[in-house]
Amino acid sequence: MTTTPLTRGWYRPMQARRPDEEHRVATPLELFFDLCFVVAVAQAAGNLHHDVAEDHLGHAVTSYLTVFFAIWWAWMNFTWFASAYDTDDDVYRITTLVQISGALILAAGVPRAFTEADFTIITYGYVVMRLATVANWVRAAAGDPEHRATTTTYALGVAVVQLGWLLRLALPEGWAMPAFLVLAVADVLVPVVAERRGKTSWHPHHIAERYQLFTLIVLGEVVLSTSVAIQSGVDAGNPQLWSLAAAGAVIVFALWWLYFDRPGPVPPASLRGSLFWGYGHYLIFAAIAAVGAGLAVAVDHDLHQAHVSGRTAAYATAVPVAVYLLALWLLHLRWKRGLGLLTFPVAIVLVLVAPWLPAPIHVLAGVLFVLVALTLVIRHRAPTRTA
Question: Do 217 and 38 contact (CB within 8 A), yes or no?
Answer without folding.
Answer: yes
